Amino acid sequence: MRGFVHAVVGEAERIDVSFDLISVGDVQGTPLVEMGWDDFIAPIEAAVRSNFLTVKAAVPHMAGGGVVLFFGGEGDPVPNYSIGGFQIALHAVESMRRQYATELGAAGIRFVTLKTGGIPDTIPDVMDGAEALARSLNEATLTGRAAALEDVGAVAAFVASDKARTMTASTVNVSAGALID
User: Fold this and answer.
1) CATH of 2-173, one of 3.90.170.10, 3.40.50.720, 3.40.109.10, 3.30.2090.10
2) What's the pTM value of the predicted model, to 2 decimals?
């Protein structure tokens, strides 16, 4: 990752916006009391490690300020469904975001989480139950339509812009009401 960051800085001279968005290898559908340790801890380790390393690589190149976007956000436990260590991973990343915002706010670096509640167009068509999962994400919203990648991109662009320069240590909810603050 550091090689990539150095290549970007070599061309752009600095980093203005950084974000980390990965699959965390979570196992869902099994209650925690029935889940094995490896399945439980995998998304927590992946999410925390990935965000930690991304921030560590990008922040030194944000002299004078920048924006770090996190994806996920805390939410209430999902009713009638077990999402394993994924929910705990979201809480851990939110705690990291708060700590980073506190430590690096004086340096002009902002930290904001985009909370989506799931994006149907990110579900692989070849996945078993993809259509049902996409339908459930839409049905879970208050508007009947979950955010699309285009929606999330538009909000991310706004949050990263100077028009949102006062937003830090916060979460922006783009879940269409699937996750209520």
Assistant:
1) 3.40.50.720
2) 0.91
